[in-house]
Amino acid sequence: MTHSPTDPASGKAPATPAGAPLPPTTPPHPTTVAPDQEAASRQPDTAQNPTRPDGTPAGPGPQVAGSQTAGDEPRPGLAMPPADGTEPLVVVENLRKVYRTGPKEVVALRDVSFTAHPGELIAIRGRSGSGKTTLLNLVGGLDRPDGGTVTVAGYPVTRMPESRLLELRRDVIGFVFQSFGLIPVLSAAENVGVPMRLARTAAAERDERVRTLLAMVGLEKHMNQRPYELSGGQQQRVAVARALANRPRLLVADEPTGQLDSQTGRQIMQLLRAVVRSEGVTALVATHDPNLITLADRVLELHDGAFVPATPTAPQPA
Ligand SMILES: Nc1ncnc2c1ncn2[C@@H]1O[C@H](COP(=O)(O)OP(=O)(O)OP(=O)(O)O)[C@@H](O)[C@H]1O
Fold this sequence. Notes:
This protein is an alpha/beta fold. It has helices at residues 132-139, 162-171, 188-198, 203-216, 232-243, 262-279, 290-295; strands at 90-101, 104-116, 121-126, 147-152, 155-156, 173-177, 250-254, 282-286, 298-303, 306-308. The protein has a domain at 78-172 and 282-310: Rossmann fold, CATH 3.40.50. A hairpin with a 2-residue loop joins β1 (90-101) and β2 (104-116). It is globular, with a radius of gyration of 19 Å.
């Protein structure tokens, strides 16, 4: 079962995954959330570290203590840093989530840890109910854990106040969901432009980026069509373009092919593979789809809320 992500501030599902209806609460992009450079000493809402001119953090995030220390026992999902010394973009440490409904408790995640490096496409696989959506919601700052930490591009996601999380979800993380989440009354181009409007990107730059993104996903001829005039695969392409609008560092995709036939699903997975390369983002994709599993750089397998060694997947016919 896939659950809609909830906004911790309201407890309700956002109207669109990209945070489209959220009013900007802070100065416009690129005055963006500051990276956490002093995780150990800083108070949650006082980070004011330098950003690049384009608003992205000036340096890689800090290595969270204990995430990759020498002598750690190898754990499923905990990657060794690449030889070039690149810092991980995502650091997840001992993440724990318990859902409580009256007296009933469901432990959805049990001390999950992993890292993801820039440019990596990671598939998160597991049976229904294994915790994939929960994990992505916590990494994307859509929900709060009961324990553990998440750092994305140096931002301490699990310690940031909601106002900063809104900015993080707008500027640093792009979301793609199974149900596309497009705004029905807007054209494809307008949907892709929504995150840039929220970031107050200048109109000319916005229009240019919309055109570039729609061309990248093969929909330049459909830019004026509304979602209901597009196929499911085309709608998901628009959603991918929208997720990339503000040049995120991380793409979070929850079952992006769940509503598509296998051939269309494969095309979407190939698109995701291509955009991870061309845009240089890191992608975390929850999926049951063997098409993506074979395209991923790495597979993390969840079982009852914990990582287990990934089972091999047979290559899919083209
Ligand atoms: N809001 C919630 N309240 C109570 N239990 C929940 C809630 N969300 C998820 N769960 C439970 O937590 C566990 C993990 O759910 P989750 O949706 O993360 O799994 P999943 O792997 O994404 O499943 P699927 O592949 O079906 O989407 C399941 O047992 C689920 O029933």
